[in-house]
Structure to design on (264 residues):
């Protein structure tokens, strides 16, 4: 069930994340599945795992072929259980087959790849069993400027794509046109972080972890670093207005009282 947000805030699904989705394990495939994939779709098991992962993430984000989801090579390497050399070869083959497109930021589905990933999900019955139980802490507010233009969205995105924050490594970017979502993953793989900005000057910063206290602590550190970057690089003032806490998609806490660290 989609979480309903307060009017004016960026639509938010705590589970719609590159980093919380568990990919398939090719070692669990039986020989009949591998043969079917190779004979019918001309896919190796590694290629199938990658396409399925893109398809699962796209489905969770409710993305379409008109929305740009880009996953970095480092993000794929950390998420799919494929040796780096074999992963590189599989990605190159998917690019050659025009199922993936390689960009300076990572890899994204082509229209052909999007259609095939949907076909594979329908045929082999991918379900949401890949979702863990997580706690998500969020801070929401406004970027104080006349209007967050497409050009300003692009500039902010370019500043943060690929950027590391302490123990967090950049993973993926989703471009919805009037809204951009950036994702990071902690070195130990236990904490997911997001920055969402636009439309209507909205901004949301979140951290997710299986451990409630861990997510809460990291959110304060991450928010401070992101806001400092926005203030120094773009001379923007960020007004954080609310704090929410979720267990999976169930909202546990909703407050318009900000922690003293982030109070205006």
């Amino acid at each position: 069930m989609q979480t309903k947000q307060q009017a004016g805030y960026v639509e938010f699904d705590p589970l719609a994340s590159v980093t919380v989705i568990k990919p398939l394990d090719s070692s669990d495939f039986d020989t009949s599945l591998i043969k079917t994939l190779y004979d019918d779709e001309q896919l190796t098991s590694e290629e199938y795992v990658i396409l399925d992962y893109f398809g699962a993430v796209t489905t969770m984000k409710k993305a379409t072929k008109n929305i740009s989801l880009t996953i970095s090579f480092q993000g794929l390497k950390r998420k799919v259980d494929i040796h780096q050399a074999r992963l590189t070869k599989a990605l190159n083959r998917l690019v050659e087959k025009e199922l993936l497109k390689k960009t300076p930021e990572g890899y994204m589905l082509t229209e052909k790849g999007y259609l095939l990933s949907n076909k594979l999900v329908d045929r082999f019955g991918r379900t949401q069993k890949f979702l863990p139980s997580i706690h998500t802490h969020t801070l929401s507010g406004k970027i104080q400027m006349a209007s967050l233009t497409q050009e300003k969205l692009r500039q902010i995105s370019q500043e943060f794509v690929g950027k590391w924050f302490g123990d967090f490594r950049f993973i993926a970017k989703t471009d919805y046109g009037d809204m951009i979502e950036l994702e990071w993953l902690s070195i130990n793989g236990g904490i997911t972080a997001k920055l969402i900005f636009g439309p209507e000057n909205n901004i949301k910063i979140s951290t997710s972890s299986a451990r409630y206290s861990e997510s809460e602590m990291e959110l304060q550190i991450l928010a401070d670093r992101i806001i400092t970057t926005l203030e120094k690089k773009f001379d923007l003032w960020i007004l954080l207005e609310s704090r929410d806490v979720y267990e999976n998609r169930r909202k546990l806490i909703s407050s318009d009282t900000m922690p003293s660290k982030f109070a205006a």
The first helix runs from residue 31 to 41.
